[in-house]
Specification:
Elements: H1 5-17, H2 26-37, H3 46-77, H4 87-117, E1 123-127, E2 138-141, E3 144-150, H5 156-167, H6 176-181, H7 184-201, H8 208-238, H9 248-259, H10 261-264, H11 271-276
Antiparallel strand pairs: 1-3, 2-3
Length: 277
């Protein structure tokens, strides 16, 4: 997570900003962040991401092992002794673990997305009551002088409390539906990997290097298929105002109408991240 986080930042920003910068390339997006926010800009929200990935893995493997044990106990009661699961059982265990993980950890990823997409140079206007603004930039609004000052960057806990206070506790579960759909991503990856490996095994022995390439190919294919749901989920995480009332299918329809299919695939130009993840 720490090593690939700059790619995650670029990908997430592209998912939620594609309408604002539809023709922005990966390199220019990175340069813009670096010039505006410096190197720390590529690591916005890293603290929440590290916490989130820790909780995610704990919950996932806990429920996977729980479901796995249930299958093995059921088989043992029927007089079948074995130490592993079949392909279908593995997929079911993965789906159960994935759904449990989404429900438990969604609030963490909502906070992380908010922090990742927050610009460090975001500013707010502060009214100067009869004072002369010295230094920095100032502008006249309705006959009164206002100063542009940097907005305070909140911590993970501060961002969480801000969302609850201003938008309600339910906002922490924004994007749950597309996130649940994304549970099929590792299932697709595993299925594609197995099919490709079996096809290659009929021709020759499968090596460790072959497994790496087949696994990477399976991951890229699975991500390409499910990527629109990743975009919709990210948009839901940062939505405010009327956007909070928009459902998954309504969000799909709006993005297609306003931005085309390219809008649903904003940020999918980071194959290294998808392979490493």
């Amino acid at each position: 997570m720490a090593l690939t986080y700059p790619l995650i930042t670029l990908s997430t920003r592209a998912q939620v900003e594609s309408r604002k910068h539809p023709s922005t390339s990966t390199l220019s997006a990175a340069r813009r962040i670096l010039s505006r926010e410096g190197l720390p800009g590529l690591y916005s929200g890293l603290e929440s991401a590290l916490f989130g990935i820790t909780i995610t893995n704990f919950v996932y493997y806990y429920w996977y092992e729980f479901t796995r044990s249930a299958f093995l106990k059921a088989a043992s009661k029927n007089g079948i002794k074995r130490t592993g699961l079949g392909t279908v059982e593995s997929m079911i265990a993965g789906a159960v673990a994935g759904c449990a993980t989404v429900i438990v950890t969604n609030p963490v990823w909502v906070v992380n997305t908010r922090m990742t997409t927050l610009k460090k140079d975001s500013e707010e206007t502060v009214m100067e009551e009869g004072k002369t603004v010295e230094g920095g930039s100032a502008k006249l609004i309705d006959g009164e002088k206002h100063e542009r000052v940097p907005r305070k960057t909140l911590s993970t806990w501060g961002t969480l409390l801000k969302i609850i206070k201003e938008e309600g506790f339910a906002r922490l579960f924004a994007g749950v539906l597309p996130a649940l759909v994304l549970v099929i991503n590792p299932i697709l990856q595993y299925t594609l990997f197995e099919q490709l490996r079996n096809a290659l095994a009929k021709r020759r022995k499968v090596t460790a290097k072959d497994s790496f390439y087949l696994g990477a190919l399976g991951k890229l294919a699975a991500t390409t298929i499910t990527y629109p749901y990743i975009t919709v989920k990210s948009r839901a995480h940062v939505a405010t105002g009327e956007g909070t009332k928009e459902g998954m299918f309504a969000s799909f329809s709006r993005i297609l109408n306003e931005e085309g299919w390219a809008g649903l695939y904003g940020g999918q130009c980071f194959p290294l991240y998808f392979i490493l993840s």
